[in-house]
Amino acid sequence: MTTEAATRRMHGAPCWVSLLAHSLSATQEFYGALFGWEFRPGPQHFGPYARAFLDGREVAGVGELAPDRHLPVAWTTYLASDDTDATAEQIRSCGGTVGVGPLDADDDAGRMAIASDPQGAIFGIWQGRSVMGTTITGEPGTPAWNELVTRDTSSVLPFYEHVFGYEAEPVVSADFDYLTLHLKDHPVAGIHGVGNSLPRDRGSHWMTYFAVTDTDAAARRVTQLGGHVLHAARDSAHGRLATVADSEGAAFTIIQRS
Fold it and tell me: Domain named VOC: which ranges (predicted)?
């Protein structure tokens, strides 16, 4: 196992991303055309679900919301856990909420739960057994980074430190509230405090970044496929990025590494 793959298995490391949408077929068409994903049936315990593959390697999951479930269409970041039940208890004791599970996924794939932090940001927990999670990251069409977008980093950091054991490294800047979360000296995720810029319709949320070869071209492709650009392409210290939404409104960020 590579160091990168081993890092993704560490307790607290983002290990999987999953999207619940209204139309599974339309969502598959969108991401298939944007990222070149191919789909195979996945566990069906919440309804129709498919696993997305790129070059035969598993990258993400896409499911269909039941018509009576009025949940936001959004990407969910899953954090690896050594023991989902123990992690769920820690989440509750630290002021978070466990909304689904813990429960076993199909065919001994793993044990999972859906939770939210004290600020309301939803995330998943995954204790992998036969399925450990995303098998490829950082290449075009695959997850590249996961980041919690919240009002301010200081109010929510203690929760994640206690539950997942992160060590936080602040970005030293007078006007940029950002923490990089480390596990055993490996950067695994970030927390971005955006103050009053936090979207009112979303509140605190985990953002999935997907790698692309050309951010500007990918943003144009998003609009051609029925999605839209939320924040236009811009340069950052880590590459050129844009925040976009798919054809059902699920937001994600695309990044072309510098």
Answer: 13-128, 142-257
